[in-house]
Write a sequence for this structure.
């Protein structure tokens, strides 16, 4: 009788081990710098605000990525540069239409948050082409621009819809 109980106990133990999840090594943490302003970027279906950011060895270079990403646990505030530690997990996008994120970003911690003194205007980008449609915006510098693209190309970081008063 005892050998039979021992066998059942052993069988139960082995089967429960097979069903438990395997604990993997923790995913690596990346360093990310978020610039003090967001940019307008276009997807396949709509225009949206996108973060300007650098990851790991890009930090401190002239190269900034502009992409519509969200970082779980992080709230962006205009006028501050952030250095963050984030966990980046690839997402399976094989069944996804355009504008799907490639990665999931999770905030681990905010390393630094630095206020920028004059965040309104950055270097202009004269090589960017804009349409000539007239949809005026009022730039943070209190100047009216023909449309949001013209404002962005002029180096204006934020604006409101409509002409300035």
């Amino acid at each position: 009788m005892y050998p039979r109980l021992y066998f059942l106990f052993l069988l139960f133990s082995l089967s429960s081990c097979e069903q438990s999840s395997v604990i993997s090594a923790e995913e690596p943490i990346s360093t990310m710098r978020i610039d003090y302003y967001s940019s307008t970027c276009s997807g396949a279906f709509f225009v949206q605000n996108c973060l300007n950011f650098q990851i790991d060895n890009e930090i401190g270079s002239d190269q900034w990525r502009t992409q519509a990403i969200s970082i779980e646990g992080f709230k962006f505030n205009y006028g501050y540069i952030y250095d963050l530690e984030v966990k980046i997990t690839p997402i399976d996008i094989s069944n996804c239409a355009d504008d799907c994120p490639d990665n999931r970003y999770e905030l681990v911690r905010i390393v630094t948050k630095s206020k920028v003194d004059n965040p309104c205007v950055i270097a202009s980008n004269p090589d960017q082409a804009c349409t000539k449609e007239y949809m005026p915006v009022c730039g943070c510098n209190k100047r009216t621009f023909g449309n949001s693209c013209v404002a962005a190309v002029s180096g204006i970081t934020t604006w409101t819809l409509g002409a300035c008063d």
User: Anything to note?
Assistant: The chain is about 15% helix and 35% strand. Confidence is low (pLDDT under 50) at residues 5-25.
